[in-house]
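Re-run with default settings, no changes from the original entry. Doing this only to confirm the output is reproducible before filing.
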Amino acid sequence: MNDKKHFEILIDGKGIVEKTYQREKSVRLAKSREYLYFLGLVGQIGFVIAVPIVAGLLIGRYIDTKAYTYPRYSLLLLGIGIIVSFVNFYNVVNEIIKKSKK
């Protein structure tokens, strides 16, 4: 079996070069996909943290202006937004850990 591979390489001089190039190209493609995956994770984590906090603050501010109770609901919903952010962050990190173990 080794002789056959050796024979093919002798006949087709490009065989080794093409296989090496294809292997390097697939490695570069895998690395670029990995970078995009981690960039997506960073964006997802930022989104998961920021949205509940900002939403809680804005909704609380709106309720406070309508009910003239400033800053009661703003602070309450801001606290709830922070708690929701921590829970979401924990869930996303656990999901990432589970995917990395597979």
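The radius of gyration is 27 Å. The chain has a mean pLDDT of 82.
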